Amino acid sequence: MFDENASCHLAIGASYPTCLKDSDGLSEEELKERGLNHSLTHVDFMIGHERMNIKGYTRDGQEVDIMIDGRLQV
Predict the structure, then answer these.
(1) Is the pTM higher than 0.85?
(2) Which H or E run contains 25?
(3) What are the φ/ψ torsions at residue 39 (nearest 5 degrees)?
(4) How far, CA to CA in Å, does 65 sit from each of 5, 54, 68, 73?
(5) Using CA atoms in the order 17, 20, 21, 24, what is the torsion angle rounded to 10 degrees?
(6) The predicted structure's pLDDT at residue 63
(7) In degrees to the nearest 10, what's the CA dihedral of 36, 37, 39, 45?
(8) Nearest-angstrom CA–CA distance, 56 and 63
(9) Residue 60: what pLDDT?
(10) Measured between alpha carbons, how far is 74 from 52 in angstroms, rounded to an integer?
(11) Which residues are 65's β-sheet partners?
(12) Inter-CA distances, 6 with 14, 18, 25, 33, Å
């Protein structure tokens, strides 16, 4: 996942049902069966650097700047 202020981040704690396809209306037990956890906390850890440059590629092979010098371009 690309983030507005880091190249990516990882989160420890509660998972978000909205990140799971077709999760609307599922019970806590059904969410758990599909791999989601429940926690009282959710902490994000950002991973990035002010000099980080990231390039992406479109389906047709075009190169696109995603991040230049730590700043999101898209």
Answers:
(1) no
(2) none
(3) -150, 155
(4) 15, 6, 7, 6
(5) -10
(6) 96
(7) -70
(8) 6
(9) 97
(10) 15
(11) 55
(12) 21, 22, 32, 31
Can you read off the two tokens belonging to residue 52? 């980080």
**pLDDT level of residue 46 (50, 70, 90 thresholds):** confident
**H-type helices in the chain, by residue range?**
28-33
Which residues, at least 6 apart from 59, have a Cβ–Cβ distance to it below 8 Å?
none
pLDDT tens column, 5-44: 566 778 888 888 888 888 999 998 999 999 998 889 989 8
When computed from its CA atoms, the radius of gyration of the chain, rounded to whole angstroms, is: 16
Residues paired with 8 in a beta bridge: 47
Q: Are 33 and 27 in contact (CB under 8 A)?
A: no
Any idea what DSSP says for residue 31?
H
